[in-house]
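Researcher: Structure prediction, please.
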Amino acid sequence: MSKQPAAISETEKKIDIHNTLQTIERKSELLAALIEAPADIIIFSLDKNYCYTAFNANHISEMRKVYGVDIQPGMNMLELINIPELRQKAKTSFDRALAGERFFETEEQPGLGIFYEFQWGPVQAHNGKVVGLTAFIRNITEKKQLELKLREQEQRFRTLFDFSPDAVFVHEFKEKGFGKFIEVNRTACERYGYTREEFLKRPPAHISAPDDARERSSQEARELLAKKGNLLFEAVHVSKTGQHIPVEISSTIFEFNGKKAILSIVRDISDRKKLEQSLQESEQLYRNLLDVAPVGIAVHSEGKIVFANPAALRLIGAESMEQVQGMPITKIIHPDNLAQSQKRIGRMLAGEKNLYPAEDTYVRLDGSSIDVEVMATPLTYRGRPAVQ
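Model: Predicted structure follows.
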């Protein structure tokens, strides 16, 4: 009877050993599953002598593809890396991990255009002593290529943005009014005299001319832009030195960093405005000369009178332009001279020279005749061929 407890104790030990072995086996299977599970991650571990202790199928495939070797546990990984530069880089990373450091690295395989992201870390025993290292490696070539492509696109955009001959502004979209500037290009800084940093502290209203009518117009434009999504309008801006700059603004609502913003391309139209002013002054001067000219001047297009100055109206007995507007030119040419006059006009329009001055007879509105001397020349009137 005294030996029975010993027998039970021995059986329990065997059971404990069996259970322990099963636990180890399950944990080993779980560990192997975890190592092999990630389809896009290379995993391996080394001891302090750089020899393999574990690795997954991805690492086997990668070593075969890059270095042409079939790896086995216990092999020295440094001896398998046949590219000196990569071997030295690998040793540096191994030593950092074996020294207890955890860190990330990104590297490119020379000449292959393949990018990897490395996550290194030490393997520690229960007492905290470093006994090896682990590496988790992800092929990030696609991500890197996308980053490079985005960087190139950003560089192209920045080049176009900064070297645009027009000032370009990006500012916040607000339900009411205009938000602050988010971005401005080089032309804007040069034209308005502000640095980029100064611009980014200010709202668009800061460069608008201080005029109540313009402010109302700007607010109306803002509301129309919010409704349509894009808008082309004119305004007057003010530089840092106080110079007023007439501008044409093309604004579009778009998404910038996940939020609504307004992109405004602002063109300096000072030269255009000066030209328009010159044309207006020239037209006014011409109009004044026509009004006070002592001789009759008229314009007909497509056979109908479209303009007559005061002297021409008096010549044919009309009191206002409305009486002759649209009247066929043939109604004021005497029937006896009509064929010859039309023939002469046709020859002139065909390019023949020295046909004028010519004598003719006109018929006034009251039916009386009047002898006249005519000078004629072709011109363009409101975009159409005409004769003056």
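Model: The longest helix spans residues 4-36.
Researcher: Thanks, that helps.
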